[in-house]
Specification:
This protein is an all-alpha fold. It folds into two domains: 22-77; 92-157. The chain is built from five helices and no strands. It has helices at 9-13, 23-49, 53-77, 95-128, 136-161. The radius of gyration is 20 Å and the shape is globular.
């Protein structure tokens, strides 16, 4: 019997690469990822504020720049390297990688929890006390911010804090 070929099987079974690049390069990727979110939100706000054709062009350029930066940051942080250890099965990681992954997840939970609580307070207050401030675009932006943090913050913490390869402990 012919066994079906799964093209991504080799990638999923390959060992996790320790090739993480330089610290400054990883930090640029983190800034690109989170900065892109603000560019996308800014372009959304600019579309509602500017009705002139020039304003719409500025909003479109901001949106396109944000999407390109988000793709660069997200795809480069989510590869099969140690930086993405929070999203890789535990059985593939060695002891040091597991410890760093667990530390990054533990450090990200308070930030995610606090941001989520603030977003919920905003939604509750605008819903009950100030319905005029209720805005679906802002609520969606807050939802996507929470999603972005949940998916990428542990990897961003590892990318930001892991020393350069060959350096024992820097910073």
């Amino acid at each position: 019997m012919i066994e079906p070929r799964i093209p991504h099987r080799n990638v999923l079974e390959s060992p996790v690469s320790d090739d993480i690049g330089s610290r400054s390069g990883r930090r640029r990727k983190v800034v690109a990822l989170y900065g892109s979110y603000f560019l996308i939100c800014g372009s959304t706000a600019a579309q509602t504020l500017f009705v002139s054709p020039a304003g719409r062009i500025v909003a479109a350029v901001l949106l396109l720049t944000g999407i390109v930066a988000a793709g660069y940051g997200f795809l480069s942080l989510m590869g099969r390297t140690f930086v993405n250890a929070p999203n890789i099965r535990e059985s593939v990681l060695d002891e040091r990688q597991r410890q760093r992954r667990n530390d990054a997840i533990q450090r990200s939970f308070p930030a995610i929890g606090m941001f989520t609580a603030l977003c919920l307070v905003y939604v509750i207050l605008t819903d009950s006390l100030a319905p005029a401030w209720r805005n679906a675009t802002v609520t969606q932006a807050l939802f996507w911010a929470i999603f972005l943090l949940c998916v990428s913050l542990p990897s961003a913490i590892i990318a930001w804090t892991e020393p350069d390869p060959g350096v024992l402990d820097a910073d």
